Amino acid sequence: MRTHHKTLPLVAAALAASLGTLPASSQEAPALIVNGEEIPKAVIDQIVERNQIETEDAAQRFAVQVLAAQEAEKLGLKDDARVKQAVRMAEIEVLSRAYIESQFDQIEVDEDDVKAEYETFATEQEGKNEYLVRHILVQDEEQAKELQAEIDGDEEVFADLAREHSVDTGSGAEGGSLGWVLPELFVKPFADALLALEEDEISEPVETQFGWHIIMLEDEREAKVPSFEQIRPQIENQIKNVRFAEHMEELQADADIQLPEEE
What we know:
single chain, alpha+beta, disordered N terminus, 6 strands, 54% helix, four-stranded antiparallel β-sheet, 10 helices
């Protein structure tokens, strides 16, 4: 089965960027206790990783949230219809993330499929260009617009804000750098925005299924096809992504999904 026409890029990194990592279950001593409520170290570690801040700062920030939540419970806000709806939405996000992680890890990729994808990929790259790219990924449009305005075309500011705010912590640690990349390795909205940029230009916020991106094009050159071993992890992830998408399509086909019309 050929999958190159359906592939989505860097799936493992993208999932991690857009959904984060579920905190590990642990029996170790808590990292934070607020009015007797124990907060596991794994929760604080995730806040540290997501926000690129010190452990003490993460604990203090979360302590304020826990205090507010405890006060909300005292006021009976836990039973408010809007709160219940928001809690259910958060629960759905966490459960869907857990399902994606568990199913994605179980997908097995055949070596012949990987080699066939590489051959197709290498052939398709002949005569194409690759791009030196940075990006910042955040979860809402308002924050993306605020960061884009703050950057104001300054590459150093872009890199600093990527380290501080990007939920793609892998590239964020490198100032948002994705290195030399091919547009085909990205989802269409990202690729289209990238190809529309001039050298040293920064995009308006771009929405994908992973969140809101601010994209910077640093340079462009004739594509150098990476070796099989260099790109193998990406190809394996691409194949997994296609198979997981097919799995979700099957679930949708079997599900009772209704979109009631407004009266």
